[in-house]
Amino acid sequence: MNCVYTNGLTQEQMIARTNDFKTQVLLWVNTHDFRLKFRWPVLPGGKVLDFNATFRGMADGVMLRTNDPANDSQPLYFVQASSYVTNQPTLPLP
């Protein structure tokens, strides 16, 4: 039996497509891309010479935000790899 308003997809095809979409959304929410830029050397007085290197990496898990105890205005982010968002988040509409 074909589902209404789905261009003739069968119910099994609609279930498979919906499950794939949910999997992609959960991967999108639980995967984080990081870019670390290192500049060196730092000279006395705080001057930094123009040598740098950028490293990229990925981590999966829930991203947690906290504040630096020494500076409340500076947010800190951590990725807790042992836990994941399991419910489907609300996606922003384009």
Which helices and strands appear, and what pairs or packs with what?
Blueprint: H1 11-30, E1 31-42, E2 48-60, E3 62-68, E4 71-80
Antiparallel strand pairs: 1-2, 3-4
Largest sheet: 2 strands, antiparallel
Shape: elongated
Strand order of the largest sheet: 1-2
Would you tell me the structural class of the helices and strands? alpha+beta
- Could you report the average pLDDT, rounded to the nearest whole number? 82
| Count of alpha/pi helices | 1
Q: Kindly state the number of beta strands.
A: 4
The low-confidence parts are none
Number of domains: 1
| Radius of gyration using CA atoms only | 22 Å
* SSE arrangement, N to C: HEEEE
How much beta, percentage-wise?
35-45%
N-end to C-end Cα span: 32 Å
Protein model, in words:
With 94 residues, the protein is α+β, with helices and mostly antiparallel strands. The protein has one domain. Helices cover 21% and strands 45% of the residues. It is built from one helix and four strands. It has one helix at residues 11-30, and strands at residues 31-42, 48-60, 62-68, 71-80. Strand 3 and strand 4 form a beta hairpin. The two termini are 32 Å apart.
